[in-house]
Design brief:
The protein is of the alpha/beta class. Helix content is 43%, strand content 15%. β3 (62-66), α3 and β4 (93-96) form a beta-alpha-beta unit. The chain starts with 8 loop residues before the first strand and ends with a helix. The protein binds phosphoenolpyruvate.
């Protein structure tokens, strides 16, 4: 079974939520609840919470990620944070190309690729987000859009480097809207991304790639989504802010 060739990962994307004391409280609540998880557990937190999260997760199975990084190593980029700065702290993952970055902050396929390059060079593991808008889906160009985003993000990435990458398929119309893709829709596009990667690299590389679904995944719908053959866990926004909900999703993935 191909699913056994890769690790399922449940990653929380906290977005712009939680002060430091709130972050610490959530992590302390979460730690014992997910301690025995057989899947990867990651929390991607605001920059201001990274140190708190790294300290609070020490010795646990929870890995810490950032929500973005700049492509330059350092320099005159006021307000930005570089990949080496994150790596030096001990951060392991970084979300790149999230649709909110593309929508509100001018992120493009080209800048996503530059950030991917910078993250890999610094030793970080990128969680690359791809996904279509409702207009794209209604125009029947979902595969084209997601294919272009995937190829652009992976431009210049070697097969060896691909082992440190996660792709998150996140239909834009499902993020924070309460509208979830059906399990079939999620699997169909995750499988398509895997096929694109197989053509770019090899079947072996594609079989080993973790491809998550993200978009209003919650404690109730997670089991069906993560049980799909090409869905290897999820990127979780809203539901990652409540320890019992996030834990339920982790539990579903352990069975998926
Ligand atoms: C996300 O932010 O990546 C996400 C999937 O959000 P939500 O789960 O809230 O839809």
């Amino acid at each position: 079974m191909n699913k056994a060739l890769r690790q399922a990962v449940i990653a929380g994307n906290w977005k712009m939520n939680k002060t430091r004391p709130e972050a610490k409280a959530l992590i302390e609540e979460l730690k014992p609840m997910v301690a025995n998880a057989k899947v990867g557990v990651v929390i991607c937190v605001p920059f201001t919470n990274l140190e708190t999260a790294l300290e609070a997760t020490k010795g646990s199975n929870i890995k810490v990620g950032a929500e973005n990084c700049h492509w330059a190593k350092s320099g005159a980029f006021t307000g930005e944070i570089s990949a080496p700065m994150l790596a030096e702290m001990g951060v392991e993952y970084v979300v790149l190309g999230h649709s909110e970055r593309r929508q509100y902050f001018g992120e493009t396929d080209v800048t996503v690729n530059r950030r991917v390059r910078a993250a890999l060079d610094a030793g970080l593991k990128p969680i690359i987000c791809v996904g279509e808008t409702l207009e794209h889906r209604e125009a029947n160009i979902t595969e084209m859009v997601v294919g272009v985003q995937t190829k652009a993000a992976l431009e210049g990435v070697t097969a060896e480097e691909l082992k440190n990458i996660i792709i998150a398929y996140e239909p834009v119309w499902a993020i924070g809207t309460g509208k979830t893709a059906t399990a079939e829709q999620a699997n169909e596009v995750c499988k398509y991304v895997r096929d694109v990667v197989a053509k770019l690299y090899s079947k072996e590389a594609a079989d080993g790639l973790t491809i998550q679904y993200g978009g209003s995944m919650n404690a109730k719908n997670a089991a069906e989504l993560v049980a799909q053959p090409d869905v290897d866990g999820g990127l979780i926004g809203g539901a990652s802010l409540k320890a019992p909900d996030f834990t339920e999703i982790v539990r579903a993935a352990c069975q998926g």
